[in-house]
Write a structure and sequence with these properties.
Blueprint (H helix, E strand, L loop, with lengths): L2 E5 L3 H13 L3 E5 L2 H10 L4 E4 L8 H10 L6 E5 L4 H10 L3 E4 L4 H14 L9 E4 L2 E4 L4 E4 L2
Parallel strand pairs: 1-2, 1-3, 3-4, 4-5
Antiparallel strand pairs: 6-7, 7-8
Helix pairs in contact: 2-3
Length: 148
Amino acid sequence: MARILLVEDEPKMQRGLRDNLEFEGHKVTVQGDGSSGLQTLLHESFDLVILDVMLPQMSGFDVVRKLREKGNRTPILMLTAKGEEIDKVLGLELGADDYVTKPFSLRELIARVNALLRRAVPPGAADTMMTLGNITVNFASYRRYCTA
């Protein structure tokens, strides 16, 4: 069972997505604005974030930017009506892992959620460091250090 944070401001979309994701066996937490979504992500651990772009208080783009600046590597699927190429590119360049435009196929969305969860680093696995020769990699922070 994956823990998913859904950051979406439309109540009908919240209910529909939460119900379907829970039916798939996931535990879903819902936030209705970008600022609350960001605060939740900074204080709780999730396996995946489904994030709208056009949100009250803080856009989804700003949420992604701030999360990645803080080193948070939780997989993010952007789910939005902003379907222009420039919006998709911006979302992905800011650090989103996938981008789905509304309207969308529920089956495709669930398949993308499952694909992102399969590729995610399991909890605890990112807490290790590995040294090879003069290079050390910290998997928690995705930083590499060279001793030479």
